[in-house]
Design goal:
Elements lengths: L7 E8 L2 E6 L4 E5 L1 H6 L9 H4 L3 E2 L5 E3 L5 E3 H11 L5 H10 L4 H8 L3 H8 L7 H13 L11
Antiparallel strand pairs: 1-2, 2-3, 4-5, 5-6
Helix pairs in contact: 5-6
């Protein structure tokens, strides 16, 4: 698996709580971390502007780091950035599969796509089309049963 999409190449503070992050696959995202910082007590020190501005990429490109105690994993940051850009992150597929006890094979059968495509989506290697996410939601709503679309609503 090519993990360049989860490796950070560069980070730049744009304004308080907002970053521009370039990943090693060449994609750049703007992400607002304010909600996350306020939601998780361990990140509360980042409310300090001076500390927030010290963000840097660790030597492996796998985390955004502020100090020895505060960092964020690149895959989670990318998922947040993807969601904020109006797209569907790989974490939604992970969570959908987990909630419904689905394997790659059973998820593929549920969605009517190949096992490989489910793996690509789950691993963040390919963007998740909105129709695939809507199919996940529909499948979850109707469960394993096939909906009867011939009945009047």
């Amino acid at each position: 698996m090519n993990n360049l999409h989860f490796r950070i190449q560069a980070v730049e503070v744009k304004e308080l709580y907002r970053l521009s992050i370039t990943f090693k696959d060449g994609k750049t995202f703007y992400v607002d971390l304010e909600r996350i910082i306020k939601e998780y007590p361990a990140l509360a020190p980042l409310l300090n502007k001076a500390l927030f501005s010290q963000v840097h990429v660790d030597e492996h490109g796998t985390t955004l780091t502020w100090n020895d105690e505060i960092d964020l994993a690149a895959d989670n940051v990318r998922a947040e950035a993807v969601e904020q850009s109006g797209n569907i992150s790989h974490e939604r597929i992970w969570n959908w599969m987990h909630r419904n006890s689905l394997t790659l094979d059973t998820a593929a059968a549920a969605l009517g796509i190949s096992r490989r495509m489910v793996a690509y989506y789950r691993n963040g290697e390919r963007p998740i089309p909105k129709h695939i996410w809507l199919a996940c939601l529909g499948w979850e709503h109707f469960g394993n049963s096939k909906p009867d679309f011939t009945r009047a609503a």
